[in-house]
Amino acid sequence: MQHIDEQLQTAIAGQYDVIVAGAGPAGVAAAIRSARSGARTALFEVAGCLGGVWTAGMLAWVFDFDQAGFSRELTRELDRRGARRGTNPDKYVYEIEAMKLLLEEMCAEAGVTVQLHTRVVAATKDGSGRLRNVITESKSGRQAWSAAAFVDCTGDGDLGALAGNGFDYGLEGTGETQPMTFMALVNVKDAAAIKEYISFYEGDLDKELRELAWQGFLREINRAGLEPSYMRPTLFHIRDQLVAIMVNHEYGVTPFDEAQVTAATLRARREVSAIVDALRALGGVWEGIQLVASADQIGVRDGRRLHGRYKVTRDDIVAGARHEDAAAYVKFGVDVHSFSKEKNRHENGLSNYGIKSKPYDIPLRALIARDVDGLLMAGRCISGDYIAHSSYRVTGNSVATGEAAGAAAALSAASGVLPHELAWPDVRRLMDREDA
Ligand SMILES: Cc1cc2nc3c(=O)[nH]c(=O)nc-3n(C[C@H](O)[C@H](O)[C@H](O)COP(=O)(O)OP(=O)(O)OC[C@H]3O[C@@H](n4cnc5c(N)ncnc54)[C@H](O)[C@@H]3O)c2cc1C
Question: Separation of 185 CA from ligand 1 center, angstroms?
């Protein structure tokens, strides 16, 4: 049987030392670290901006962020630009547009070749099973790119799956997944007047007040005649009268089924819009509330978890596992958003399954593909079980794993040594964590 690819005979459009697929928190960190380590680095992103869930997904809030390296650098830069709210460097609200620009400037400064609106759609390996090329599709058509090392930062593990690496998806045994969430920005008449409903007002709020805030906001949505699909509706104060709104859960949607993702996006936009309209109809402090922007990409929590040379597990987070080759140190606990609307009502939107976690390490081995040579991964598609993923998935850890994978990819390209044969101290040195 003749394959379409052979007919198309896609020509090599460019050759790099390192290719990073996906420019979310993990991908940007991986590409910048790789380029700063001297590797000619390309970063392919399907959206029209860098940042993934941070920007196209309009998240507006980071967790587990007080980590050495790129996270602290970003925090300092956001502060310098007056684009960060709150005093805690570990979790804070940021301005989405400022984040987009900052990431673009940092990539340019590091010498990363960025191509937006470009999706990685295929991968080819050589006879030994080593990944050699990726194929992208964009307005430039179908293009092939070769590199010595690749990093999958697509969140959903697209590149790993295309290259034939094994993966897990959903809860072991049932396949259930965490819901997606569609974010939006609203303009309000006076943010101070709805302060009691804002979980993160000016960036800071203690846990008790945060609980009261979402409970109060839920009562307000109910008073407006609606029940949100996310029972812990949350407002994040971005600046002045601009507030990010999180009121939506989309259940049972597979992130690599475009028809399902589209249907969820349309449903979610309708829901968020209806809630904002209903609040405005209440008048009072809600008078004039207006939807000013909605996310380009619905936020995906659960995608493929690619098989690596180590799997981070629930046992690791209960025991607080430590490793010689620690690529990231995770402090964030188990955080599983409810699988269904019914569960959502009982669990108030999320649960930690009663698991008491201790800070733990993610070893570099969890970032190195098990079945495909020359491939690393970072962010939420690294190798772990369902429960561990619900803890390490937040953006501070995505950045930390991105940096480690970027350093390892650059070193692999420069030395000709495959990622799984690298010595950790050599990778660690490249990570250049002068502020550790
Ligand atoms: C609604 C929601 C709320 C969250 N809340 C928080 C929070 O409050 N704080 C926190 O720290 N974390 C939070 N998280 C978790 C966090 O946002 C993610 O885990 C984090 O974004 C993972 O980073 P990533 O780089 O792995 O993936 P992503 O941010 O998903 O980035 C993946 C990137 O790859 C691109 N891409 C995908 N496929 C391809 C392809 N084939 N070719 C080219 N590009 C591709 C995408 O467009 C995207 O830009 C939340 C997540 C969601 C969804």
Answer: 18
Ligand 1: does its nearest atom lie under 6 Å from the Cβ of 398? yes
Annotated domain spans of the chain: 4-172+302-430, 184-294
State the distance from the centre of ligand 1 to the C-alpha of 154, rounded, in angstroms.
8
21 alpha carbon – ligand 1 mean position (Å): 13
Q: What is the pLDDT of residues 173-205, one digit of tens each?
A: 999 999 999 999 999 999 999 999 999 887 666
Closest C-alpha to ligand 1, atom 12: 394
**β 326-330/360-363 pair status:** antiparallel
CA 78/CA 86 separation, integer angstroms: 12
CA distance 216 to 193: 13
Mean pLDDT of 38-66: 96
* Nearest protein CA to atom 20 of ligand 1, as residue: 395
Nearest atom within ligand 1 for CA of residue 301: 53
Contacts of 243 (CB under 8 A, 6+ apart): 185, 186, 187, 188, 191, 194, 198, 235, 236, 237
Separation in Å, CA 52 to CA 46, 103, 160, 395: 10, 11, 18, 10
Query: Would you give the end-to-end CA distance of the chain in angstroms?
Result: 55
**CATH architecture type of domain 4-172+302-430:** 3-Layer(bba) Sandwich (3.50)
Determine if the pTM surpasses 0.90. yes
With a 6 A CB cut-off, is 380 part of the ligand 1 pocket? yes
Query: Would you give the distance in Å from CA 280 to the centre of its chain?
Result: 32
Does residue 26 line the site of ligand 1, with CB under 6 A?
A: yes
Cα 178 from Cα 350, distance rounded (Å): 9
**HSE, side-chain direction, 13 A CA sphere, residue 356:** 0
Q: How far is the CA of 259 from the centre of ligand 1 (A)?
A: 19
The pLDDT tens digits of the residues spanning 389-406 come to: 999 998 899 999 999 999
Residue 320 CA to ligand 1 center (angstroms) comes to 25
Pocket flag, ligand 1, residue 301 (CB < 6 Å): yes
What's the order of all strands across the beta sheet hosting 242-246?
A: 234-239, 242-246, 184-187, 290-294
What stretches of 153-194 adopt beta strand conformation (E)?
167-168, 184-187
Measured in angstroms, how far is the CA atom of residue 280 from the centroid of ligand 1?
31
**Residues 117-146: tens digit of each pLDDT:** 999 999 999 999 999 999 999 999 999 999
